[in-house]
Design brief:
This protein is α/β, with parallel strands linked by helices. The protein is built from six helices and five strands. This is Broad specificity phosphatase PhoE.
Amino acid sequence: MTQFFLVRHGEPQWDINEQYNLKGHGRDLVPLTDSGVDQAYAAAKDHRLQQAEIILSSPYTRALQTAAILSKELGLDIKIEFDLREWQPDLTFEYDSLDRLKELGDDYDANHGVYPPGERRLWESKELLKKRMDQVIDKYSGFQKVIITGHGMAFRTLVGEVGEIPHASIIEYIK
């Protein structure tokens, strides 16, 4: 059995998205706020992370920056796994505002991440998201303790948690 420590990224600078009118994956390039950096340093002090062997990270800036802080503080290598990216709210990559992101997220939540019978939605289904997360996790089953830096919706879907996961919080997940 492998013990995974799912560390949600620190608080991101979302206002950059509106400042530069970013859309699609461009919205995932924002760095952490100063508070988000402090959150990542605080997470690195958690005793549960001290015996980890490797850090896996989403390719998105906020998760990578969190992973870099953990790597520096814990002396661990980082392996970037593309399929640890956040839930895809719009598979056409055209969404361009927090309002649209909220609308898509609310629709996902209202449908419990499942496409209604005979319908297709813009967002990635819970089944697809969980499948890609599980595929990454399965690759690291030879380790005893693994840190994953990633995203709230992806982690919620993986562990079946309902509600918002706080920035830089740690969830233990055994598989």
